[in-house]
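Hi L., both proteins are below.
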Amino acid sequence: MKVRGTALRTAAVTSAAVLVLAACSGGDAEGDGTGGTDGGGGGALTVWVQEDLPDRVAATQAIVDAFTEASGTEVDLVSVAEDQFSQLITSAAAAGDLPDVIGGISLPQVRTLSANELVDTETVGAVLDALDPGTFSEKAVELTRDGDAQLAVPSESWTQMLYYRSDLFEAAGLEPPTSYESILAAAEALDSDEVAGFVGATAPGDSFTEQTFEHVALGNGCEMVDEEGEVQLDSEACVAAFDFYGQLVTDYSVAGAQDVDTTRAAYFAGQAAMFVWSTFVLDEMAGLREDAKPSCAECAADPAYLAKNTGVVTAIEGPDGSAPAQFGEITSWTVTAGADTAASQAFVEYMMGDGYEPWIAIAPEGKVPVRAGTPEEPTLYSDTWATLPAGVDTKAPLADFYAPEVLEAVAAGPEDLARWGITQGQGDLLGATQGEHPVAEAVSEVAGGTDPETAAQTAAEAVRSIAESLQ
């Protein structure tokens, strides 16, 4: 997920946001539903955005105000918490009160909106054409498209990565851990009583565990479903991925169930040579967040020690995979069916143009641009990204702490990004599995000693059952 640490956000919509939603989702004074469902405008543009942290909402409002000043179009900005989005969009659709534009939505959410015919693909496609598809990451465009229909305009990404202690690797003469083979070899070589070779999520019922495993599994060609929608979690490639991850967490990791907080804490304490986390950890590893500071022995003198001595691997390669791949999320803007098309198109173009730099500046560690630049300045946004101040309690550019090759790898991460179910047209199934966590349960079982093949079969049957319930 796009929230810090990739854990699902638990905060509800604030009472103020609920009041705004009730007040403004009804559209203009003429009562046409969404600020101009006839496409002719006339009322304020209603924009939902999945940002509910106060500082981020305030920063977004400032961008919206700048758009209003430049265009003359009034915008009602509605902050919606991620875990409330599905319920609110369903209610709005049933009431005929859809917003005109929605921002910050995930790939599964884009597919769900499309499946329910809530996307104005013609306007979305017109936005992308106006901006020039060639200025975007090819992978991001692919993941937000269904056949010839563009479902959303991809905006930014966060990706899952394997972080490793480059100082320890260099001292041991080890190559970067880019493949199953090299990761296992490094974990074995560096594992000791003081430092675990690897630490990764194993907690059952935890989205972070599923995200971590999907990141590892994708590079081995392990998919949740195939092109026909048949569940593949018990395939040879997936069994091998469960076996590989099981070896790491049982032979070379720390004791006990691990989650989003404990994996970070172990690496930050200097007690692990490798761990898997999202790009949201970059500012924390640099010592820019007081409640999540590195605590390794060397960090007392230099809080940024780990940032300076950490390498990153974006995509992992397994023996059964055709190409390296990594887990991540693309968040996007989309225009709803029946929206004020002209104003909506202008707004999204603004957010991906004049408003793009301040938008990604809200949290650059988790908003890696998937639009590199403009036709006139092809690397404008990608170049600017590394210079933007990141952090919570202290602000500083990531370039102050990380080597250029690290930030270049982070920026290029979206090109290798893949997701279970999305390109196979099974976004609804992917979303439905999040409530039951069959993959996280299987990972936990493997970590506890269950045979990988048995755990994979159990997970596959659970997903098949979920798929049947959606029919």
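That was the first. Here is the second:
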Amino acid sequence: MFRIVHTRQLSDAVFEMGVEAPAIAAKARAGQFLILRVAEGGERIPLTFSDWSAEEGWIRFIFMRVGKTTHQLSHLQVGDALTDVVGPLGVPTHTEGLGRVAVVGGGVGAAVAYPVSRAMCDVGAEVTVILGARNADLLILEDEFRALPLKELIIATDDGSAGRKDLVTAPLKELCESGAIDASMAIGPAIMMKFCAATTKSYDVPCVVSLNPIMVDGTGMCGACRVTVGGETKFGCVDGPDFDGHLVDFEELMSRQRVYTDDERLADAEYHRECSCTT
């Protein structure tokens, strides 16, 4: 059992949780992920580390309440416990020797962008972060990013309620055009990563994308995270989650991502019916 030591609601449907997990915290690296189960017999879901402390023995992750398991997770409090937490899994993000780099975090992708940006700053990279969301209420971890020694933090919202009214690709394009960056990384919804990769490719700026949104079981066994990269079949959870964005077949990826949408919707509806029956 993994005792919950921290909870925080970041927006209407986005939550942060921390659990005691000293063995995992001792080995966690930026870009890696974990798998958890809320209770015995429950669904196993992959979530990426948003923070950890090897000294204090805790890890944190951020999740959006979208289905049955994440609804259950959102109702837990400090002192409760998760049945299983497994990790760290996946290949850590490459942070060495990047020079001037732009890290783009869209929506809940900011949860991954934060430790990645911190790790890059720690090894001396000049980091510009572009943080995007549909509106100000959906921006997360802004204070945490501002505490990092970044070159610049650019906020972009679809409706202009925070920062500039733009998609994240607009400031990314400006950085590419001006020659201000040597590399980039995009973390967020698949469609956002697709257009970040397309934007940087036009300027021959390398772009790494984190494909954690397509994972299901996190071990490569289910095949849901299968993706074509440079004409070769890769598995997001064991070969990644980071890949060269210029080589990813995003159309195939997004098609595969929609496979379980109906099942997730039905499971969530059943969960709410069960809750109604017991209240």
